[in-house]
Amino acid sequence: MNGLKNYFMACAFAGVGLLGSGLAHASTPDAVGLVILSDPHVDVKLKKSSAINPAHGVSEELDQRSYETLVSKIGGYIDSNPEKTQAVILLGDLSAHNAYHQKPQRPI
User: Fold this and answer.
1) Listed residue (36, 60, 56, 34) closest to 46, CA to CA
2) For residues 67 and 100, is the Cβ–Cβ distance under 8 A?
3) Which DSSP helix (H) or strand (E) runs through 7?
4) Which residues contact 86 (CB under 8 A, 6 or more apart)?
5) What whole-number distance in Å separates Cα of residue 79 and Cα of residue 37?
6) Rounded mean pLDDT of 39-52?
7) How many domains does the chain have?
8) Helix 64-80 crosses helix 2-27 at what angle (to 10 degrees)?
9) SS (H, E, C) 26-43
10) pLDDT tens digit string along 68-103?
11) Does residue 107 sit within a domain?
């Protein structure tokens, strides 16, 4: 049960960014609708923070369930609010890859 609570807390991170974007746009009509998400390294099964420079692989990446939920929520918000959202900025490597679909790489 605690894992489910932590999962929803991690997903709420995305909701806060999306809500903040909508509120900023509603309060000032000439404002830019902007969503900014940092590079979350969160796994709801872990009880410790992730390494700042994680090793290669998925052990320190955002867990797959949270990744898929985050991407789905962002896409749903953009699709349902096209007039509000002018830009989405994904910081870090979140936008560059989905580690769960990468092929293993040989060490060089």
Assistant:
1) 60
2) yes
3) helix 2-27
4) 32, 33, 34
5) 17
6) 62
7) 1
8) 20
9) HHCCCCCCEEEECCCCCC
10) 887 888 888 888 877 776 777 777 766 555 555 555
11) no
The encoded tokens of residue 98 equal: 């989905």
Q: Are 70 and 62 in contact (CB under 8 A)?
A: yes
Highest mean pLDDT among 48-52, 62-66, 71-75 belongs to 71-75
Radius of gyration of the chain (CA): 16
Whether 66 is in a domain gets the answer: yes
Q: From CA 101, how far away is CA 78, in angstroms rounded?
A: 24
In a domain, 94, yes or no: yes
* Token pair belonging to 55: 């090793």
**Residue 25 within any structural domain of the chain:** yes
Distance of alpha carbon 81 from alpha carbon 31, whole angstroms: 15
> 């699709």: which residue's tokens?
79
**Residue 108's pLDDT band (cuts 50, 70, 90):** very low
Tokens of 56: 């290669």
